[in-house]
């Protein structure tokens, strides 16, 4: 069996044609979706990059594998691996190698995030460049395409092919951005009114603080023609969308080159193709732009497209809406290959969905986690989203938020004060889940272990960020942020979980 897993960083599903997007961003991806199945409610259990791939490749959420944030893998994390972990919960690639698969990766992810554990189980690991995730799709293909030309005809391989183009900063050739300018700007939200409201938002990657990096000359200015200096109006937002959508079109074109290489080798139709992402991207949700800094569905929902010869032919072009997590992917692939599913894996196989059937035990809600600009967890039941913030970072988010995504998909109205009973119920669900997982690992909650330290926040300290606000004459916002931080220990820390 040949399996190609295309892993595209920062890709929102609603910017792909096969998910209903009106711009021509993804003709090659759409072609695979038409031959297979797409999933509309597939989420990374933990976001962003580091915890997401840790969850996916361990088939366990961060609360169990120990990786819940963007910092280096903590000493207590089982992602550092030991013999017991290998026996009960091997990393996905180890499990495939044991079954005789040749596992190959084309990715700079491990270098970018100092995630040495990601190499475990790959027989071959190919570094596209020394740009640590800042390489474009053509640079990835320069290394990957020769491998496909030489080895695609061989049997029993699993290739992880990692692209970064939709991640900031959008460095595709300008012609791709210009091409997008020929089409109506979508989405329609945020509109001008919402953007003006966002001028008051505090935090990194917000409307008035889109660029914070002091190391760049031209402080607070974009260094890339594909991205605006700030989001001051709808025109700036459309500029940003043109850059993002152009990046997707650029990577899609180069994915097409890979498909062409497989076709030349005569194996395209025989190859299982999986297309997904590590996380999505916020474009106004909770006040953030071109960033993945909260536990919003804009960040944790990712595309999943699967074309699997011999399995998905009878459901070509279909869509499923069940609540799934990226920890489910390794069990599903193992199931499709006829392999056993390790007892230490938490994810659940959804092979039955690929076969056009139903799940035996579908989820009624999912638990999500985030650890970059904020420390957050969420409960999502398909309509209601409850967010518990453990550390707000440089944002002024309350400890608990509640959103009705059926009527407010962009999370503009926090309903926590209006529905205290629902907040209490969903918080109890979250805490019960935490308690259950901590009891399994006997290592404590990694989110609580790091709660007292501020998130990474693009390298901005509180002092540096306060100075940036003052340069915009925002002393009132500095005071708001200071007040928020003074409440972290008291208001943002839930009572200890009873053992």
From TrEMBL:
It holds the Pfam family Sulfatase. CDD domains: sulfatase_like. Residues 3-338 form the Sulfatase N-terminal domain. It comes from the Bacteria. PANTHER family: SULFATASE, SULFATASE N-TERMINAL DOMAIN-CONTAINING PROTEIN. This is Sulfatase. It comes from Ktedonospora formicarum.
């Amino acid at each position: 069996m040949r399996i190609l897993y295309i892993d595209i960083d920062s890709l929102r599903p609603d910017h792909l044609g096969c998910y209903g997007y009106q711009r021509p961003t993804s003709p090659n991806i759409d072609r695979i979706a038409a031959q297979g199945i797409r999933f509309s409610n597939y989420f990374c259990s933990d976001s962003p990059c580091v915890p997401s791939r840790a969850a996916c490749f361990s088939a366990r959420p961060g609360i169990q594998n120990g990786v819940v944030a963007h910092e280096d893998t903590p000493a207590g994390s089982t992602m550092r691996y030991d013999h017991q972990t290998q026996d009960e919960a091997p990393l996905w690639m180890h499990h495939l190698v044991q079954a005789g698969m040749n596992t190959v990766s084309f990715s700079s992810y491990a270098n970018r995030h100092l995630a040495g554990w990601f190499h475990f189980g790959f027989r071959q690991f190919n570094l596209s460049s020394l740009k640590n995730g800042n390489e474009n799709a053509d640079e990835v293909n320069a290394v990957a395409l020769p491998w496909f030309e030489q080895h695609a005809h061989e049997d029993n391989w699993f290739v992880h092919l990692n692209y970064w183009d939709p991640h900031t900063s959008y460095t595709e050739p300008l012609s791709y951005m210009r091409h997008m300018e020929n089409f109506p700007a979508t989405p329609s939200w945020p509109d001008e009114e919402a953007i003006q409201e966002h001028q008051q938002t505090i935090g990194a990657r917000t409307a008035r603080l889109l660029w914070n990096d002091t190391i760049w000359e031209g402080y607070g200015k974009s260094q890339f023609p594909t991205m605006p200096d700030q989001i001051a109006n709808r025109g700036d937002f459309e500029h940003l969308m043109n850059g993002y959508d152009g990046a997707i079109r650029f990577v899609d074109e180069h994915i097409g080159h890979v498909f062409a290489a497989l076709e030349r080798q005569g194996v395209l139709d025989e190859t299982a193709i999986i297309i997904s992402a590590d996380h999505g991207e916020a474009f106004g949700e909770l006040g953030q732009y071109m960033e993945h800094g909260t536990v919003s569905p804009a960040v944790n929902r990712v595309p999943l497209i699967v074309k699997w010869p011999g399995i998905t032919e009878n459901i070509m072009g279909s869509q499923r809406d069940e609540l799934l997590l990226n920890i489910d992917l390794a069990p599903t692939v193992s199931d499709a290959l006829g392999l056993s599913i390790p007892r230490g894996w938490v994810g659940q196989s959804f092979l039955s969905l690929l076969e056009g059937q139903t799940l035996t035990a579908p989820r009624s809600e999912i638990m999500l986690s985030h650890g970059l600009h904020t420390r957050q967890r969420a409960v999502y039941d398909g309509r209601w989203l409850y967010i518990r913030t453990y550390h707000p970072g440089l944002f002024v988010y309350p400890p608990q938020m509640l959103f009705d995504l059926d009527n407010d998909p962009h999370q503009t109205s926090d309903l926590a004060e209006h529905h205290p009973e629902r907040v209490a119920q969903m918080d109890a669900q979250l805490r019960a889940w935490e308690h259950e997982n901590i009891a399994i690992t006997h290592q404590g909650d990694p989110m609580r272990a790091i709660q007292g330290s501020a998130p990474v926040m693009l390298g901005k300290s509180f002092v540096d960020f306060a100075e940036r606000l003052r340069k915009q004459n925002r002393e009132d916002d500095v005071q708001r942020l200071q007040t928020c931080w003074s409440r972290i220990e008291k208001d943002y820390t839930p009572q200890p979980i009873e053992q």
